[in-house]
Amino acid sequence: MSNTPPRHTALDTLHRSLGATMTDFAGWDMPLRYASERDEHNAVRTRAGLFDLSHMGEITVTGPQAVDLLNYALVGNIGSVGTGRARYTMICRADGGILDDLIVYRLQDEQFMVVANAGNAQVVLDALTERAAGFDAEVRDDREAYALLAVQGPESPGILKSVTDADLDGLKYYAGLPGTVAGVPALIARTGYTGEDGFELFVAPEHAEQLWRALTDAGAPVGLVPCGLSCRDTLRLEAGMPLYGHELTTALTPFDAGLGRVVKFDKTSHADDFVGGEALRGAAERAEAAPPRKLVGLIAEGRRVPRAGMSVVADGEVVGEVTSGAPSPTLGKPIAMAYVDVAHAAPGTPGVGVDIRGTHEPYEVVALPFYKRQK
């Protein structure tokens, strides 16, 4: 690891004043939890939570050929994203391996914001810059231009409505609109990583603290609490959402990860005319014929918590590997996501366990997600 000091978000002093336990995450000093991660998790499921996500990497792509560049550089069809809408997509290597999963917002006809994971932001920026050669488009590193706050949970629309006159009712899931929140100019996006309704607010770093305090005050009557990265991880795990470095890696294609739907071969006149296109067509055919492993959910019968890298076993044989594991506050049991051989991947498959330090602990195989909110 490099010895560069960790980066701090615009809210760093505020987090410390709230007694946050800080941790290094992808080179950033980030709040892991403020008090109890279980309480923070349950607040998001039942009320609302407030997150600082300013470590995410924003990259702006503009110009007459911005769409053509993004269609070439990413696996999705970015041309079909309407202005004010967003899309979940991925950027892959030429061999089809996943470099990162992304959300792309179309802010204007020729202006897009690509949001990358903190640990991959530089890799994504470098890849987009390299792939922009020959396109009439500009790739700009806007990581310093934004702080990102998220309000997540069933009470989040009401909380946000109390501090903005933006049309939140008209804002669909995976849409974003410019507005003013608590007197601060923001891009208001109805997105999140918790399995709940919620919003992500992109603002200038100098406005982050004002916005955090206003949201804290607005949310106090309905039980909003500040939330750290620890509960963000258990929330996304229950919701069956992949985390880069766990369910997604350069060793896997989107088809290996069960996310082949994000790959669009028909977006240009030349079907494979995007980075990784040829390799991904092969991966799609292999996945259709016989996928080697499938991403499944595992629910513990006992109390021991599975962790990433542990082996999934059946009849004394290794049949898979855990990618993420944690105690689930909502289910009250330890859960995991794992890639498992297809022969053992069907929900209810008997005799499946996880090797936890030499003991084969029994687990129930289930379909993902573990948790789906009632709409």
CATH architecture of the domain at 7-54 and 146-238: 2-Layer Sandwich
**Residues in helix, %:** 10-25%
Structural class: alpha+beta
Mean pLDDT rating? 96
* Content of β-strand: 25-35%
Structure report:
By secondary structure, this protein is of the alpha+beta class. Among the domains are: 7-54 and 146-238, Gyrase A, domain 2, CATH 3.30.1360; 292-375, Elongation Factor Tu (Ef-tu), domain 3, CATH 2.40.30.110. Helices cover 20% and strands 33% of the residues. It has helices spanning 12-17, 37-46, 66-73, 121-131, 156-161, 208-219, 229-238, 277-289, and strands at 7-8, 21-25, 28-33, 49-52, 57-62, 86-92, 98-108, 111-116, 138-141, 147-152, 176-181, 184-189, 198-203, 225-226, 293-300, 311-314, 317-328, 333-341, 352-356, 359-366. The strands form four sheets. Strands 11-12-13-10-4-14 form a six-stranded mixed β-sheet. A six-stranded antiparallel β-barrel has the order 15-18-17-16-19-20. Strands 6-7-8-5-9 form a five-stranded antiparallel β-sheet, covered by helices on one side. The longest helix is centred in the C-terminal third of the chain and has 13 residues, at 277-289. The chain is globular, with a radius of gyration of 21 Å.
